[in-house]
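[Q] Does anyone have a clean structure-token version of this?
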Amino acid sequence: MLDLPALTAADFAAIERRLAALLRTSNDVVITQGEALLPLEGAIRGAARPGSTALNVVTGPYGRTFGGWLRDAGAKVVDLAVPFDRAVTGEQVAEALERHPGIELVSLVHAEAATGVSNPVAEIAAVVRAHGALLMLDAVASVAAEPLLTDAWEVDLCVIGGQKAMGGPAGVSAVAVSERAWQRLGSNPAAPRRSYLSLLDWKSGWIDAGRRALPHAPAQLEMLALAACLDRIEAVGLDTVIGRHRAAADRTREGALDLGLTPYVTDARDVAPVATTIRTPQGIHAGELAAAALAADPAAPLAAGAGELAADLLRVNHFGAAADPAAVDRALAALSAALHR
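[A] Here you go.
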């Protein structure tokens, strides 16, 4: 039997404020009681009005998922897809917005952990704002791994999760909501209400009510774990945590090149600091190489790609506790052993 003190509304609100500081925002932060797909879907279904037009930037698997949700919500979707081994550019987004002047919402993934690509949010956000559209950003993999300036970039819906660079739980997530986004959700008759997907329920029942009583019982263990990982980040400083992730990415890329392997993301400027992706040598299936590496070291932080990337891509994860030279060297040693076998 767990013997834990009750998580009060004041405790919950304090964690919200700490997340807002992490996101560099003065916007409302809603902590959602579930994995990050919950606020991502809630944000899209709330902001996509039936009959409206949305630009969906596809640089990996999650972009494709967002496109499906946008269509389900009744939006006309313009997909801007680029090869998964490179980032989208602000110029490409600007061209898409110019071709489709009616676009009201843009969905974008900051860091694609599955492909190892990080998109240049600052330049894309400036283009989106000049067009007058809302920007929904999936920052689940990027938060605490690279700069995330929600207010300076004027991101309207910024979704994060605790399980990657933050080194926290997977069962709790959050979204920062701008005033423009609240207005958009509130004016959308199709936005979820009286639903687990509803951000508007949190606004009316929690934020506008003065944060005095939680709408439902919080996921206490996950909230305590979230607070603990914020403790760790605050103790060393966010810049230190970001620097550790960047150093791990650089070390992994250099080590892979030393092994004669080819990075999947060719331009180092596009590399995400949470994962390094590698093209497997010709004739070697990524699943087989990953299995051989994990046979050499079951704890090595690596895995084969998924879906269309399953055969040719191997991913070294270096986020959270694995953003460490020892973890990187362990993964590289396991890969070396697998290649020699």
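[Q] Thanks! Anything notable?
[A] The chain has two domains: 9-234, 237-340.
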